[in-house]
Amino acid sequence: MPAALKHDLFVKGNDEQAAKQDFVSGLRAFVLNDMATSMKDHYEASIEPELSRLDKTPASGQDVHQALKSDSVFKFYSSMRYNAQEMVWRSALRPLHDSRAELSQKIAAANSDAVPSKLELNDELEIPRNVAALDVHLAPGSYHREDAAADWMGGALYDHGLNIFSFGMMGENLDDIGQSMAQYIRQKFPDFAPTTIIDLGCTIGHNTCAWKMTYPDAAVTGIDIAPACLRYGNARAQNLGVDVNFRQMNATSLDYPDNSVDVVFSSMFLHELPVKDIRKVMSEAQRVLKPGGLMLHMELPPNDSLTAYDAFYLDWDAYYNNEPFYKTFRDQDFSQLRMEAGFEKDKLLQLITPQYTYMQAQDYAEAIQVDAEFGGNTGRLAAGIEWFGFGAWK
Ligand SMILES: C[S@@+](CC[C@H](N)C(=O)[O-])C[C@H]1O[C@@H](n2cnc3c(N)ncnc32)[C@H](O)[C@@H]1O
């Protein structure tokens, strides 16, 4: 169930609204845990044996999708999941609209000139088509749409929607990914002491804050194209007492000098970009990193690392969740992408980490001593999830 977020911009809603959100979260947990397990059992018991008898064993996620497309178990799973996704946003929006005046006041105060400015917007920037042309993952208004001056609704919707969507699996303030990635680096590379960290496609800066908490001496900046997310994210970070900056920028063209940044991080960002932009983001990361700096992208695992079924399972979003670049990204050769951007083969990095904020510190430290292998839980939002990251040292 969604727990209350631990900041002052959190809107619980009235009892009926809160009950609806609980229901939607529970429904998502049921679909992604129970129904997904039953669907896999069904595939393994009934569909795969028949295909293999006909000498047509699926070799890729696409083959599995083709085989399951007209199957009623898959269709039922998909319609439940699609509807649950729409319900996530609907159940989050109403209480936010009801609290609009109060939230506007808090966010305007945090972003006002009265406090030292942590937020830099750029009105000249065009919103790229990957954000502007559709409601990404069915979120009304995508990340960027603004209905009023200094609007922040896109950010508030992401925060509250993600909390419902992730049914308690993203950490106390939805920052488990950032905490796990930053801790992994801090513990595995104790001599690495970054002073400048940027988080690309940061949305509301939930994972940006995690880097500042892990490396308190570093200057940490969240970068995104969507002002509505950045306004909200800046107010959120201030409310949490985390000293980070936010800049509106297109990650394909970074406003940083060459060799000036220690860590270029992103999480769940690349899969929302067309491949041509992923290439630009990586080249830009290579350019702005200092020698010895680190590029690290937390992402969904590449299709060539998974079984055909697991690849199919993760690619569901590409077909049914307004994520048009999801599969194209996961079909790429991740090593080649990095090397084409100028990173050297022997400096590539790949990691799989358990969830830091759900473990005792000692258990986490022991767990990451062993290099984890790709498996059915890598990148899959369900019990036992592990996060995948890849990047390179410059
Ligand atoms: C899925 S969200 C990232 C989520 C967030 N990093 C997290 O960990 O949950 C993708 C974000 O990338 C932003 N974005 C998309 N294209 C961009 C671009 N070219 N430059 C900067 N930000 C971009 C979107 O506005 C959105 O906030």
What characteristics describe this protein?
Rossmann fold, single chain, alpha/beta, 12% strand, 2 domains, binds S-adenosylmethionine, 394 residues, 15 helices
Task: Please give a quick description of this structure.
This protein is of the alpha/beta class and 394 residues long.
Secondary-structure class:
alpha/beta
The number of helices is 15
CATH fold title of the largest domain: Rossmann fold
**Percentage of β-strand residues:** 5-15%
Strand line-up across the major sheet: 1-4-3-2-5-6-8-7
Cofactors and ligands: S-adenosylmethionine
Rounded radius of gyration (Å): 21 Å
Largest sheet: 8 strands, mixed
**Percentage of residues assigned to helices:** 40-55%
Structurally, the number of domains stands at 2
Tell me the overall shape.
globular
Residue-averaged pLDDT: 95
The CATH superfamily of the largest domain is Vaccinia Virus protein VP39
The CATH architecture name of the largest domain reads: 3-Layer(aba) Sandwich
Number of DSSP strand runs:
8
Tell me what the structure shows:
It contains 15 helices and 8 strands. With 394 residues, the chain is of the alpha/beta class. It has 2 domains: 15-165, no CATH class; 176-393, Vaccinia Virus protein VP39 (Rossmann fold, 3-Layer(aba) Sandwich). Strands 1-4-3-2-5-6-8-7 form an 8-stranded mixed beta sheet, with helices on both faces. Strand 2 (196-200), helix 8 (206-214) and strand 3 (219-224) form a beta-alpha-beta unit. The longest helix has 39 residues, at 15-53. It is globular. The protein starts with 14 loop residues before the first helix and ends with a strand. Bound molecules: S-adenosylmethionine. The site of S-adenosylmethionine has 22 residues, from helix 5.
